[in-house]
Amino acid sequence: MPDTPLEIQRVIQVHPDHPDPDIIKKAAGCIKIGGVVIFPTQCLYGLAADAMNPAAVNNIFSIKKRERNNPLLVLVHSKKDLEGIVAKIPDHAKILMHAFWPGSLTLVFEAKPGICHLLTAGSGKIGVRIPFHPVARALIQAVGGPITGTSANLSGSPGCSCISDMPWELMQAADMVLDAGTLKGGTGSTILDITQDKPRVLREGAVTLDTIRQTLIFKKM
């Protein structure tokens, strides 16, 4: 389908390593007022909304056609940001954060009371990650709080590593698109539930289970 003037206005080219602060500020402003921004994560493009705004989070579910019983992970800029969203940080989580953040490991914590139930899908748990991509990190910092980190795809469909592959439906639904070129693609983040004494892998991705095990064993020696 050919570009329209509206789509051209929404899609903004951004340098993958040194994003223009004015562009990031504009995108962050969009998120702060409840909008949705397509942005680059390390492997795939994601859908960013204010994770503390229930209406904005609900909109993400609608855009993706995602079941409400399927929780959304969030992205933060630093470990300090965990204070507002998680109930506690176990010792083994501190080891893993030190080893793999920023990066491709999502840790599932006990959610702090009052966190949007859509994020947790009523589980009382929330998945959190610090992304590695410079654009993603700059965007979260400019927003000043956690954003949704779900992939920019329709539920059940593959994620997109370049904007040209993005479904037209998503492009139309987003308020702004940050195009940082083609991403490396591949598997998404590994999701690890650390709410129990024995961490449990919910999804193995870029960080292997063996790597996680070796990290925990080495640090305990």
Report on the architecture of this protein.
32% of the residues lie in helices and 18% in strands. The chain has 221 residues and is an alpha/beta fold. The chain has a single domain, classed as DHBP synthase, CATH 3.90.870. It has a six-stranded mixed β-sheet with strand order 7-4-6-5-10-11, covered by helices on one side. Helix 2 (21-32) crosses helix 6 (134-143) and helix 4 (91-100) packs across helix 8. The longest helix is centred in the first third of the chain and has 12 residues, at 21-32. The protein is globular, with a radius of gyration of 17 Å. Residues 1-8 have low confidence and may be disordered.
Helix content: 25-40%
Question: Can you tell me the CATH topology?
Answer: DHBP synthase
Question: How far do the termini sit from each other?
Answer: 58 Å
Q: Over all CA atoms, what is the radius of gyration?
A: 17 Å
The CATH class turns out to be Alpha Beta
Shape: globular
Low-confidence stretches: 1-8
Largest sheet: 6 strands, mixed
What order do the strands of the largest sheet run in, or round the barrel if closed? Answer: 7-4-6-5-10-11
Structural classification: alpha/beta
Domain unit count: 1
Query: Any idea what the CATH superfamily is called?
Result: DHBP synthase
Give the tally of β-strands. Answer: 11
Mean pLDDT: 91
> Number of helical segments?
8
> H/E element string?
HEHEEHEHEHEHEEHEEEH
Beta-strand content bin: 15-25%
Q: Any guess at the CATH architecture? A: Alpha-Beta Complex
